[in-house]
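User: Please predict the structure of the protein below. I'd like the answer in structure-token form so I can feed it into my own downstream comparison script.

Assistant: Understood. Taking the following sequence of 424 residues as input:
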Amino acid sequence: MAEEILRITGGHKLRGDITVQGAKNSALPLMAASMLCEGKTVLHNIPQLTDVYAASRILNRLGFRCTISDHTAEITSGDGDTEIPDEDMRAMRSSVMFLGPMLGRRKRCVITMPGGCELGPRPIDLHLEAMRQMGVQIREQQGKIVCQAERLHGARIPLPFPSVGATENVIMAAALAEGETVLTNAAREPEIADLAGFLNRCGAKIAGAGEGTVVISGVRKLTGTEYRVMPDRIAAFTWLCACAAAGGTVCICGTEPDDMESCLSVLTAAGCRLGICRDRIYLDCGHPLRNVRYIRTMPHPGFPTDAQALISAVLCTASGTGMIEETVFESRFKHVGELLRMGADIRVSGRTAVISGVPKLHGAEVEAMDLRGGAALAAAAAGAEGETILRGLRHIDRGYDHFADTFNSLGGTAVRSVISSAVR
């Protein structure tokens, strides 16, 4: 069998300007939310990702018409099935986000457990319990989860944890429900506010998105509109980290710096020089870095779990010792074993990683185990001596639009090629 790899030659300082892609974690729920709308929805700034194409396949299988051209998705309402095939559920980790809009639009949805990156348990019980409180009957049948309701009604729903996916599902289901839904302990990520902004433009009545309490007043009908997906804050942080690891000066354009405050403060603490001008973030890293004593991942506005692997790659060669505590996912240190192959000094105990800086990393053959871990390995390879062969590119393709092209546009050296998977 053939396998794609990325050959990265390190030791080149990164320099240049790039415009950040549209946000994966906004584009996907916006595509799902379009199911609630009559007529046509046009979404601009859609990133070209395998997860986006997986979402498009789901929409088309459910009777909607979704076409993607360049960076624009057009989605037209239609009638069709209410069951998402297991192969589509397994194709991406966030596939459960179709539950809320399907129930809101057709009052029925049949799903299986979602797939995607193996980051430890991501139970969907929060989603299902919230739907129950809105009048949905749920049963398991031959390995499938059958959700059905005669009508959806508003409810007071306190989330035990500020889950992004559960928050999005409640907002989408409640948009067309009868009465008012009050969601407390809601996720506060910027992508939640982007989802609400889109739905409100379609005619929804949603207040408080991006805060701890969200109030949704159900309406009878939503109408398709045109909307631009927000910039991807994690992709922007990825390229800042690649520059920090390799040294150099970059400008990331088209960003929302306010959404990245916790990430930028960590880079500053590590010794990077940062400048912000409206939607641009400048990073200069022409001198040795220092380790950050303690980083703890938290729901927004805390340091994001999606950025944990990326900052780990930067701190591998920073002087001193630092500690990262992962509080969101159980299995989010899979990249550490691969960084060790490159000469890093990292010790993991439970949910904590202790990083002792080494003078230099060296190239090695490594494998991406998940999306952000793969990007972190590429960032580390940018500053390493020699050549790194990165496998598992399917993970990176889920979240980065033409990763190698962007890397090379900043002066990196990354060549994507196909080899026999038997070659090691």
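That's the full token string. The longest helix spans residues 233-246.
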